[in-house]
Specification:
single chain, alpha/beta, DHBP synthase, 10-stranded mixed beta sheet, about 25% helix
Length: about 210
């Protein structure tokens, strides 16, 4: 059964965050709130966690996983960013955007798009994932908590606990966090491409 953590939406309790991060380091898969909707998260090198996310969401190998980063310095360790892209992303973060970029060798191979060798990265504007990633000391491997055959992501902690009680080890609840997933911008080609229109304003990339 999943452990349920009620976390303050503005000042997450450090002891609770530390407990959740310890479980992530021990291989746990967690459901947590972001600035767009809930996400599933595990440690970067957790092969079993990656496989479980694929199973829960029924994903194929072309799905772009996302590395949730604490800040731009951390993000730049895992993706290659030229000056123009740097300025565009810097102006939009933190925020409800996911950026697809060429990965560096720091990213495990099983996370890469099989043809493009790209990965998603983002810096959320929400204190809970920021606290988790700061405590973890590395990006959190994540994917939107959108179940197969459902049009909208799950948004209520209690419902996630009910639905995924035997699929995840922990559910963090800090109140409402919205129903729209991130806006996804692919910077791996010659021009930025809006792959998904979501919570972040896409007009700045058009």
């Amino acid at each position: 059964m999943a452990k349920y953590f009620d976390v303050h939406p503005e000042n997450p309790q450090p002891r609770t965050i530390s407990t959740v991060v310890d479980s992530i380091r021990s291989g746990a898969l967690v459901a947590y709130p972001t600035d767009s909707c809930y996400a599933l998260g595990c440690q970067l090198g957790n092969r079993e966690g990656i496989a479980r996310i694929r199973t829960i969401r029924n994903l194929d190998d072309r799905h772009h996983f996302t590395l949730v980063c604490h800040d731009f310095a951390q993000l730049a360790q895992f993706v290659r960013v030229d000056n123009d892209v740097f300025r565009a992303i810097k102006a939009a973060t933190p925020g409800s955007y996911t950026f697809i970029l060429p990965a560096t060798k720091e990213v495990p191979r099983q996370l890469l798009h099989p043809k493009k060798k790209t990965v998603g990265v983002r810096i959320p504007d929400h204190v809970v994932p920021q606290a988790l990633v700061a405590e973890l000391g590395e990006p959190l491997l994540s994917s939107t908590l959108l179940l197969p055959d459902e049009e909208e992501p799950l948004t209520q902690g209690w419902e996630i606990k009910e639905r995924l009680d035997h699929e995840v080890e922990a559910v963090i609840d800090s109140g409402d966090c919205g129903t729209e997933p991130t806006t996804v911008i692919d910077f791996s080609g010659d021009e930025p491409e809006i792959v998904r229109r979501g919570a972040g304003d896409p007009s700045r990339f058009e």
